[in-house]
Amino acid sequence: MKQKRILSVQDISCFGKCSNTVALPILSAAGVETAILPTALLSTHTGGFTGYTFLDLTEEMRGILAHFDRADIRFDMLYTGYFGSVEQLQIVADAKGAILREGGTVLVDPVLGDWGKLYSIYDDTFVCAMREFVREADLITPNVTEACLLADLPYTGDQYDNEKTEAILSRLADLGCRRAVITGVHFGEGEIGIVYRDFESGEKFTLASARTDTPLHGTGDVFTSALAGYLLAGFTPRTALTRTVSFIAECIEKTEKALPGHWYGVKFEDSLYRITEDIHKKQWEDAITGK
Ligand code: PXL
User: Atom of ligand 1 at shortest distance to CA of 44?
Assistant: First the structure.
């Protein structure tokens, strides 16, 4: 199978394990050629550190994309995360046609906030722009807070509630994206997982694993990066999500065991081999069955 190529559009936080610094190792473990389009350069992420530096890279993004176009560099997947400004959303939306290969897909992690709050650099204008941006997406991966913000419905906690979830999903469908995964949903006692909906085929399911209560920053970035790797390897959404949920559960468990009280990033390194193994196994099976 020809090696897949992805463009990861998110910031570089020098310390703190999120965005591109987790996308690169995870996607490499998945065997994907990973290029980055950095939206900003920060000393740390903004979720718990104070006094961080922030360099906006909007102008640089235009130049990088123009060069990719001139050099005929194209991608199988456009994967977006943390943006630094509304203008950047427009730049990437405008470039989509030129940078995607035929049949290429768009995976949007609509990074806006967590635990019911917007991240510090965002405001309502940014939320409105993100609603527009997700129209182009084949798949979006909001957490519950982000799903509520996109749906313009009040956040009432991460607890699963069928009526509320259906209301959110119906609004997300109206935004125009093709499929959605809501992450970080709390199911009953001690379980956390995802809700999946394909708005075209109607396919739906939930997946859950054991929950730990330590808030761990960057979990969403690890999740979406692993999911991108599995999808590019040709797994169905259901299998890709099953493997991703299991991977993330192991990463969190290992983080808590090895580093009690740790908060700023997921210790995912020890579990990367699982992604590589899953994908090698699939390639081997596909080769045998002539897929
Ligand atoms: O994990 C999302 C994220 C990415 N990048 C930066 C962030 C955050 C969340 O706070 O601050 C810089």
Answer: 12
Distance 119 CA to ligand 1 centre (A): 8
Between CA 52 and CA 173 the distance in angstroms is 36
Burial category of 61 from C-beta neighbours within 10 Å (exposed 0-12, middle 13-18, buried 19 and up): buried
CATH of region 5-289? 3.40.1190.20
Q: Which two tokens stand for residue 240?
A: 């890709």
Ligand 1 pocket check for 13: Cβ under 6 Å: yes
From ligand 1's centre to the CA of 227, what distance in Å? Answer: 18
Provide mean pLDDT across the span 181-193: 94
Residue 174 has pLDDT above 90, yes or no: yes
Reported as a single tens digit per residue, the pLDDT across 93-143 is 999 999 999 999 999 999 999 999 999 889 999 999 999 999 999 999 999
Q: Counting atoms of ligand 1 from 1, which one is nearest the CA of 217?
A: 1
Give 216 Cα–ligand 1 centroid separation in angstroms. Answer: 12
pLDDT at 86: 97
Taking the complete model, does pTM exceed 0.90, yes or no? Answer: yes
| Residue ranges per structural domain of the chain | 5-289
